[in-house]
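Can anyone check this?
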Amino acid sequence: MRGIFIFAKESFMAVKKYKKSDDISYALGATVTMELLNRRGTCARCVYVSPKSEVTAVVDKAKSLGIPVVESEKAFNILSPKENCYVIGEFSKFASQAKSDRHHVVLVNPSNSGNLGTIMRDVAAFDCADLIIIRPAVDNFDPKTVRASMGAVFGINVEVFDSFEQYIAKYADRVVMPFMLNGSPFGKTRFDADKKYSLVFGNEATGLPDDYAKYNPVRIEQSDKVDSLNLSVAVSVALYKLYVS
């Protein structure tokens, strides 16, 4: 591939497997990397391109932003050895905050990168709410999460708190709506246009603790053929209703 900027050897040798404690992460794949460049270009540090790649749009976009591009197989052996992946975007982690004048999707202790990434995509698709994560939780900047989001992580507001109490202290004037099996039917909910809602979902395996019942919980009505919906599916259903209301 012609016309590609090449990093100095010392910089390239710094490529290493991702760790949560690092201040950088990676967008795996051409589509995800393009989302990074389009939506968070100021955070992009480098684009790695496999010699097998025939992608030119990402390279052209990176060049237009003055972001170095490296053509080499080594980065892929380190960062994505088993993936069908030919483009990787390296970026600095960034902070974002939810907005008080928007609805919120609140995930309490999410533990699965795939689910979290898919929920980020849901949030972007319906564009009616910001995303809140309550620790302990899966890393929202893990490359697996970033890839599962298909780059949506770069275009939404995500704010992380150490506890639900900390979240409520900051965003107090809201209708808290936890999703629990003993809740009232969510399908009958009528949203007040003058109020902001927090749709609260628990961990994939354990759901929400019993003390969330004080917030007048709701449930998504379903048949008895399954015991519950996948977390990302439940969030999709709830967001769709909120979006069209």
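Reply from J.R.: I decoded it. The first strand starts at residue 24 and ends at 28.
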